[in-house]
Design a protein that fits this description.
Layout (H helix, E strand, L loop, with lengths): L2 H32 L15 E4 L5 E5 L14 H11 L11 H14 L9 H10 L6 H17 L2 H11 L9 H9 L8 H8 L5 H4 L5 H17 L5 H9 L17 H14 L12 E5 L3 H12 L7 E8 L5 E5 L17 E2 L6 H9 L7 E4 L18 E4 H6 L4 H10 L1 H10 L20 E2 L1 H12 L3 E2 L5 E6 L4 E4 L5 E2 L3 H16 L13 E7 L5 E8 L2 E8 L10 H15 L4
Parallel strand pairs: 1-3
Antiparallel strand pairs: 1-2, 3-11, 4-5, 4-16, 6-9, 7-8, 10-13, 11-12, 14-15, 15-16
Helix pairs in contact: 1-5, 2-8, 2-10, 4-5, 4-6, 8-10, 10-11, 13-20, 14-16, 14-19
Length: 590
Amino acid sequence: MPAQKQKFLFYLPSLVFFIWLYFFLANIIKSTLSYDPYKDNSINQVSFSYRIESSNNEVISKLSRKFDISNEKETVPQLIKNAFISAEDKRFLKHHGIDIMGLIRASLINLKNGSIVEGGSTITQQASRLIFLNNELSFFRKIKEILISLIMDLRFSKNQILKIYLNKIYLGSGANGINEAAKIYFGKFIHELTLSEVALLAGLTPAPSIYSPYKNYDLAIQNRNKVLNSLYKNGFINKTELYESTKEKIKLNQKSSEINLEDDKLLINFILEEAIKKFKLNHDLKLDDYIVIKSSLFMQWQKEAQKLASNIKPKDIEVALISIESNSGLIRAFVSGRSPLVNEFNRVINAIRPLGSTFKIIPYIGILSIGKNINDFYYDEPTCWDGYCPRNFSQKYRGKISLIDSFKYSSNIVPIKISKEIGLKNIITLANLFGLGYNQKFDEVLPLAIGAYGDSLLNISNAYSAINNDGKIIKPEIIEKIKFNNEKIIWLNKPIEKRIMSKKVINNINKLLEKSITEGNGIAAAINSERVFGKTGTSDNYRDLWFIGSIKNTTTGIWIGFDDNRKTILSSGDAASFWKIYKTKSLLSK
């Protein structure tokens, strides 16, 4: 072999290693420098602290915002800063991302035990791991962690690094960040935490699942006391504060089997999204400032609805419910799935399902609006239109029948004849006035008249709410008021009504809706001594089961079905029964 080639092969492994090392370091440096904590989606929550209340002033949820990394003037509260530095990294303010003394100490302990039992990680290293790495215990990952930490210490201030860490650190029970931990464990804002509570949270950091006060209260208290003693030794608290804090009995947010609205993250997020649409913060809020969002929900109604939804059978079927106060448009109950803990889909707003017979109210409003009477006759008999031959759901045909009776028996033939008479274009225009036909565009085809097209539970319920509001439609709202914690009003709900039906037509439509309950397909929703106005609806193969009903000043819509559009073994009568149980309970409470 030529000497030149031998020389090349001799140096080849070193060359490969240095090339690998170059790209390894370049990748670490590039990813660390390109990281933008201000655009980190994993911590990018609402930019304000908030408290959400029910209409009757009960607290539904409260949460401090994450620390603002971009605002260098905002500092971590001294109490929290001292506790976490004492618990996790006593030399945090002195070192440059890594603590050599800490690494040596951890290495000696690990050698003594024959395994990795202590990481020696600084707060900067932990922040680096939270952003770029995982919890794998390996030499290679440790090297990457150290390199990233050194770069982060050069790039960010100690204040920023501590805020990144506290925004992302997992503290157990689903809490990512100290703001979520304050809510989950104590139901508080971070500025409301006591010294003892902060120490308990700082004591969770080594192993949140092991030291969780929900799982092992005594162990959590032991760790809290270690943090308090460390604070005392480092001169952050005096002897009296140490004594009082160690004696303080921790009052945890107790978990119970009762429905907890705070667990319904989809509902909370929906309220927050609606709130954000209504105002823009034009100035920075301090950490102890917050927004109070007064929702329109009646707490007891909401709990009753969710409890009923959770117990519906079969166990994998879904349900959605909305109650609207007809003369204000305020949403008093809002259930978008049977389980708030796992629900990730808003079936009240985003599920666009065939409306079935609930849509038939539109053709009847149309025909009554041009002067027809509820006692005028049509022929309910098998009929075909250019090859389209619909059938009545019951397979029964009653021949010459009045409009009120055809609605009561939910004829399919009569509303199609009505729509032909009025014109499908006019039916669509009328439906649009009621807020229908925007999520799924309606076409001028005859199946439209009997609910072949889809819309949301929110929209069809609000259409019936307009009928219950004397023919005046109002945009539904789930928020009554938004204000600062100093009581200054940011936004106040002021409903705007628009009349879309005459009073004469309203009176006749209500007769149809009431007859549907007392004698028709909606009889399962009848409540003794109460006037109920409503309509059932079913799509093909019982895939969608509807009942929309009004009683007094409230309209409630129910949808039951499977998300994958399977056929059910239930009927719209089951939706009407669900409605009755819910409304019977809600009539007794507010």
